[in-house]
Design goal:
about 240 residues, alpha/beta, Rossmann fold, binds acetoacetyl-coenzyme A
């Protein structure tokens, strides 16, 4: 029986590539998205992967949606917490709304979604949780106090939960992508990207979403059963954690 995977923020960017890679390896995949209906409908039509609209920052909405996904697709064996947003600003200009939004999605989202699949995984004695953090949660980034704090939180979340999941057959790992060629990175002002960011990447290029997706496929596989609590960096050498 094929394993079931839920990828949050799965219809665009890195999540899109993760969905396709898991599907190609035989997983039954469901994707969540927060707001972009047009992109989600296009994704579903092109891939045949069902999409579910809910805000991971909302616990009750996450709970309701996950019950529906499990009814439609099956009990979730693999959860990829990929949904993430940026609201960049230097700290002296950062509003409470920018702080709350980023912490709400990128950090509280991990609680809201994972908490709703955890009981099932514990009962079935199997689970793979893969959290998508960021290089900027490891090193900090000018203009991203909110994002860096949320992504560093994702790493702590992973290390603590891995210890709790181990006896129940659940592994919990985190991937820290560097700068990947997605809409999120392309939204960085061109001169900042070219002057400040690209020169810091020893491999001399942005990463491809598929390069992160392949890391997810490995951690989701049966072969990765002895790996838990680990942080996998994939950043072109930009930061050596
Ligand atoms: N280091 C040091 N100084 C920097 C800097 C940096 N990285 N970036 C900007 N500055 C300086 C500028 O040189 C300028 O200095 P002066 O005033 O002396 O000229 C000053 O900061 C700009 O300050 P402003 O108040 O005018 O800033 P702003 O309102 O224009 O916003 C910013 C600046 C939003 C931080 C902008 O520089 C930016 O978007 N930077 C990119 C942040 C970034 O890397 N985001 C990653 C997004 S992708 C992602 O998050 C995915 C992932 O996981 C990797």
């Amino acid at each position: 029986m094929a394993r079931v995977a839920l990828v949050t923020g799965g219809t665009r960017g890195i999540g899109h590539a993760i969905c396709l890679a898991l599907k190609s390896k035989g997983f039954r995949v469901a994707a969540s998205y927060a707001g972009n209906d047009a992109a989600a409908q296009k994704f579903q039509a092109e891939t045949g992967i069902p999409v579910y609209k809910f805000d991971v920052a909302d616990f009750d909405a996450s709970s309701k949606a996950i019950q529906q996904i499990e009814k439609d697709v099956g009990p979730i064996d693999v959860l990829v917490n990929n949904a993430g947003i940026t609201k960049d600003a230097p700290f002296h200009k950062m509003s409470k709304e920018q702080w709350d939004a980023v912490i709400g999605t990128n950090l509280n989202g991990l609680f809201n979604v994972t908490r709703n699949v955890w009981e099932g995984m514990r009962t079935r004695k199997y689970g793979r949780i893969i959290n998508i953090s960021s290089i900027n949660g490891q090193k900090g980034q000018f203009g991203q106090v909110n994002y860096s704090a949320s992504k560093a939180g994702d790493i702590g979340f992973t290390k603590a939960l891995a210890q709790e999941g181990a006896r129940a057959g659940i592994t919990v790992n985190v991937i820290c992508p560097g700068y990947i060629g997605t809409e999120m990175v392309r939204a960085v002002p061109k001169e900042v990207l070219e002057k400040n960011i690209l020169p810091q990447i020893p491999l001399g290029r942005l990463g491809e979403p598929e390069e992160i997706a392949r890391c997810v496929v490995f951690l989701a596989s049966e072969d990765a059963g002895f790996i838990t609590g680990s942080t996998l960096t994939a950043n072109g050498g930009q930061y050596l954690a």
